[in-house]
Specification:
The structure holds two protein chains of two kinds.
Chain A lengths: L27 H12 L1 H18 L1 H4 L6 E4 L2 E3 L23 H10 E4 L28 H12 L25 H37 L1 H15 L3 H11 L4 H12 L1 H14 L3 H8 L4 H38 L10 H10 L4 H29 L1 H4 L2
Antiparallel strand pairs in A: 1-2, 1-3
Helix pairs in contact in A: 1-14, 2-14, 6-7, 6-9, 6-10, 6-12, 8-9, 10-12, 11-12, 12-13, 12-14, 13-14
Chain B lengths: L5 E12 L2 E13 L4 E5 L6 H8 L7 E2 L4 E4 L2 E2 L5 H7 L4 E4 L3 H4 L6 H11 L5 H14 L5 H4 L9 H13 L5 E5 L7 H18 L2 E6 L2 H7 L2 E6 L2 E7 H6 L4 H7 L16 E16 L4 E17 L3 E5 L6 H8 L9 E3 L2 E2 L5 H8 L2 E4 L13 H12 L5 H14 L16 H13 L5 E5 L7 H18 L2 E6 L2 H7 L2 E6 L2 E7 H6 L4 H12 L11
Parallel strand pairs in B: 3-9, 3-10, 7-8, 8-9, 14-19, 14-20, 17-18, 18-19
Antiparallel strand pairs in B: 1-2, 1-4, 1-5, 5-6, 10-11, 12-13, 12-15, 15-16, 20-21
Helix pairs in contact in B: 4-5, 4-7, 5-7, 7-8, 8-20, 14-15, 14-16, 15-16
Chain lengths: ~400, ~550
């Protein structure tokens, strides 16, 4: 390497223009990680499938709903999916419109049209016209005789009907309150993922913060916090959760708060170890010599080191959060009654062994969702593996 | 003349990486006779170590030999199977590695580590093995060898560990000893002792030695023949005396001329005092017992006084563990210390981190390892501009980028490269970036903590020239910490020789270099400039 040392007499040099990259510019190392992630076919496809399912479930109201998406009534466009119209509008007298009511349906069809979601039940819709007492099996498991009776009830006893083709389908049957399992599944999937994601992200933030402070400052702070965490994490979580949620009526956010009490601990050790290691790196010392404040050094110089470990753990923490919520729901201490939840579906499956579609559906969905997340987690872990990154 | 012991013909080495094959050694040939010493010299990355490793086939499976043969006693080792290789390794050919701290298993006692090699190659009987181990330890100059049998590696000093490594290498009386930078990790005085020991043992046992090093001073002292390697090729080979007297290849000439040159400016007692420290102490408490009572102190820096003046350099020299880096950090208030420190006459030793922040602009530091001191996740511009942002220099980011650009030009880098990341630069360029980071703030005082020791010799000289140039232009005051006396001689106006946290000798650098008064200083100089082990009692083993 030979370089001439320019003398001070040179005219003032100018910086090159700021690079303007694409929308997202990846550093080479992140590019390699992304390639590694893509190279793991199972993880990559799991990720794609998961994203599609999750995005779809975010629009659950457009897939399974007891209200039409769009209604044209007397030349007026209505969006019942977003707005609550009183029945008055359609010539009734109730405060809310029941669009599933044949009278209302006829009234709207006569004065315009409406677009329904593919499944005309919401998670809380009770199907009042079951071919068999609840829990009613999936429609494709019904005998033609049962279909015929249901269809006759619906269309009218004298008119000709086409059996099963004429009744409203419950693709996966109903639960013991006559609610459509498929609809509850879609909403339950959404609430599980949202709950898991929120819990995982919030507990990561808290955990990273706690680990960062302990690792960076070390000494007495570290000693005291570590002992506290040891005692805290040896408390029997599940019992405490059950006791707390039997005192406070659990809602989504109350439950989130209660679970957060214990879940933040999981990341602390990893982050603390990374900070302990990195706080004596020379570039951290160099930053100190430049006069950077501690929070800024932690944020800019040390945290990026800890993020690899954190991101690697995130899918597994997400899995853990979902499992905890499901188990609480299963025990009946979870989300308020009536909420669509996979754990509650499993509980119903347990108490209605004569209706295997409940347990089987719940099991299949939970197993599938958790497997997807584990596969994604493995791929993320491999992508961040330094030995692979530089291979 | 009979067939040579080792005859390497047209050896090439290639590595497979991510589906691509990169050839790193191109058609290297040399031969080594019994009882001779051949030195492979070159800078880092020149392929000297992997050439040596491939003799005993210790390269990773990703390595391949497209051409060549390695004839050892007439047999091609490249064709040998695993069993034959095991017979050769540790018996006929042995190795001594660079890092004595990691080449010994920390969990095994010395006796077991040396005994293992003897047993592996057919020695039987506990008593016989033990007697032989003691004999070997005595041979390599370990004092009280019988008492050292039960020691663990961490109980030995670096030099002693390297002696144990040599004892292991000699255990089966090899025909060929491969020494891969065996003294690079050691202090200069210890280095001189180890070289002396190797030379003695070689002539006594009549073995051949392949010596790999980047240090030409060592080559001149120890080798009969030299091969100079550059970028995987041998560019010049011949008897040591001839090469040093009349180097033919330009690269050899550049290597020989690479020693830091130039004179330090004369000491000027009237120059303005920038930083002054008086009776500075850094004591680390040693705690014991249930209540963690402080029972004693490790005195890393024990009562050091020094004055750094404008445009002048105070060189701090000493061996590892002498407390010189701690001293530098203490003066910058990066670790806790006792005793007054004054910057431009103003006491700074009691200031909190907030009060220190504006002063950080004037007092900067450059670290030893240019690979560790630059955050790998930030671009060069971000690294250099970071201090500017904190210190409020430059109003906008664009303005700061212009300051960064001029700082980069100042240290001889192209400002167009400022948006690249550190891993795209060589070691010397990285050190220039680290210097630019310090210089961008326009400091008045810079602590240079071994800024050249992680660099190749020729790059060292460039960095020294750069530092001297910057000092002259900006009137900087340097505190230059180094164990490398040649570099210090080229820069320092005043000198402080440290040992065990105390000053051994201090004063005008030229006077001390010309006539050292203290015995330790003399031993240090002898080892550094002539690679002689002198004053055996005064220096550490």
């Amino acid at each position: 390497m030979t370089q001439s040392i320019l003398t001070a007499g040179d005219s003032a040099p100018h910086a090159p223009d700021l690079p303007r990259g694409g929308f997202i510019e990846l550093s080479p190392i992140n590019q390699r990680r992304l390639d590694n992630f893509r190279a793991n076919k199972r993880g990559y496809w799991s990720f794609i499938v998961f994203i599609i399912l999750f995005t779809a479930s975010l629009f659950a109201e457009f897939i399974a709903n007891e209200r039409p998406i769009l209604v044209s009534y007397k030349n007026e466009l209505l969006v019942p999916v977003f707005r609550d119209y009183p029945e008055e509008k359609f010539g009734g007298f109730l405060a809310h419109t029941d669009y599933r009511d044949p009278v209302i349906q006829k009234e709207i069809e006569a004065n315009g049209w409406m677009i329904w979601p593919p499944i005309r039940y919401s998670y809380k819709t009770h199907n009042l016209d079951l071919p068999r007492p609840a829990p009613s099996p999936p429609t494709w498991l019904l005998t033609p005789d049962e279909c015929a009776r249901a269809a006759a009830r619906k269309i009218g006893p004298d008119k000709p009907h086409r059996g099963c083709a004429d009744i409203e389908w419950n693709w996966l049957g109903t639960d013991d309150q006559g609610r459509d399992v498929a609809a509850r599944l879609i909403y339950g999937f959404r609430i599980s993922i949202l709950f898991g994601l929120t819990l995982a992200i919030v507990s990561s933030v808290v955990g990273i913060f706690a680990g960062a402070v302990q690792g960076y400052f070390g000494g007495r702070i570290d000693l005291v916090s570590q002992r506290f965490i040891e005692i805290w994490s040896s408390l029997p979580h599940l019992y405490l959760l059950i006791i707390i949620s039997s005192i406070i009526t659990p809602s989504f956010f109350v439950l989130l708060g209660i679970l957060l009490l214990f879940s933040w601990v999981s990341l602390v050790h990893v982050v603390r170890a990374e900070f302990l290691r990195a706080r004596n790196f020379e570039y951290v010392n160099a930053a100190r010599a430049l006069g950077l404040s501690n929070p800024r050094i932690m944020w800019r110089h040390v945290l990026p080191n800890a993020m690899v470990a954190t991101l690697t753990f995130l899918p597994f923490i997400l899995n853990g959060s979902i499992t905890t919520l499901t188990s609480l729901d299963f025990l009946g201490f979870g989300l308020p009654p009536g909420s669509p939840s996979l754990g509650e579906m499993l509980l119903q499956g347990k108490s209605n062994l004569q209706a295997p579609w409940l347990g089987l559906t719940g099991f299949a969905v939970i197993a599938f969702m958790l497997s997807l997340l584990v596969f994604i987690g493995e791929a993320v872990r491999d992508a961040f593996d330094p030995r692979k990154t530089f291979a | 003349m009979s067939a040579p012991l080792l005859d390497i013909r047209d050896l090439s080495i290639a590595f497979r990486q991510a589906g691509e094959e990169t050839q790193v050694v191109h058609g290297v040939s040399f031969r080594l006779e019994k009882g001779r010493t051949l030195a492979l010299v070159g800078e880092s990355g020149s392929g000297k170590s992997i050439t040596a490793l491939s003799i005993v086939r210790l390269l990773t499976p990703a390595a391949r030999h497209p051409t060549g043969e390695i004839l050892f006693n007439g047999r091609d080792l490249l064709q040998a199977d695993a069993d034959q290789l095991r017979g050769v390794r540790g018996k006929a050919v042995t190795m001594v590695f660079q890092e004595p701290m990691t080449s010994l298993n920390p969990l095994h006692r010395i006796e077991r580590q040396i005994g293992e090699i003897l047993k592996l190659h057919g020695m039987r009987g506990e008593e016989a093995v033990r007697a032989r181990v003691i004999e070997l330890l005595a041979e390599v100059g370990i004092p009280d060898p019988a008492g050292r049998l039960q020691s663990y590696p961490h109980q030995l000093s670096g030099g002693q560990r390297q002696r144990v490594m040599i004892a292991m290498a000699l255990a089966n009386r090899p025909d060929l000893l491969i020494a891969d930078e065996p003294t690079t990790a050691l202090d200069v005085t210890v280095q001189a002792q180890i070289l002396k020991l190797l030379k003695e043992l070689q002539s006594r046992l009549g073995m051949a030695m392949l010596f790999i090093t980047h240090d030409l001073g060592i080559v001149r002292r120890i080798a009969d023949d030299v091969c100079v390697m550059q970028k995987g090729r041998i560019v010049e080979a011949g008897p040591t005396a001839d090469i040093f007297a009349a180097p033919k290849h330009p690269y050899t000439r550049a290597l020989l001329a690479a020693e830091p040159k130039g004179e330090a400016p004369a000491a000027d007692a009237n120059a303005k005092t920038i930083v002054e420290a008086d009776n500075l102490r850094v004591w680390f408490p040693v705690k014991a017992g249930l209540l963690r009572k402080t029972v004693s102190h490790i005195k890393a820096v024990d009562g050091i006084s020094l004055t750094v003046r404008e445009g002048q350099t105070v060189g701090v020299v000493g061996e590892s563990g002498s407390g010189k880096t701690t001293l530098g950090l203490a003066i910058l208030r990066l670790i806790r210390s006792e005793g007054p420190i004054a910057y431009l006459g103003q006491r700074i030793d009691g200031l909190g981190s907030k009060a220190m922040r504006p002063l950080r602009r004037d007092m900067q530091i450059v670290f030893q390892d240019p690979y560790g001191s630059l955050s790998p996740r930030m671009s060069v511009a971000e690294i250099v501009a970071e201090g500017l942002g904190v210190q409020g220099v430059g109003k906008s980011y664009a303005e700061r980028r212009d300051i960064v650009a001029s700082a980069l030009v100042d240290v001889g880098l192209d400002p167009a490269a400022m948006d690249r990341y550190p891993h795209e630069f060589s070691g010397g360029q990285r050190q220039r970036i680290a210097i630019a980071r310090a210089m961008a703030l326009n400091p008045r005082f810079v602590v240079l903590d071994e800024p050249t020791s992680a660099l190749d010799m020729s790059v060292q000289a460039q960095i020294v020239d750069l530092l001297r140039d910057l000092q002259q232009r900006h009137g900087l005051a340097y505190l230059f910490i180094s164990h490398d006396l040649k570099v210090v001689r080229a820069l320092a106006t005043d000198l402080v020789v440290m040992r065990h946290g105390k000053v051994i000798e201090a004063g005008d650098a030229r006077a001390i270099f010309a006539a050292p008064k203290d015995d330790y200083t003399r031993a240090l100089f002898a080892a550094a400039f002539r690679i002689e082990a002198a004053g055996g009692e005064i220096v550490a083993q």
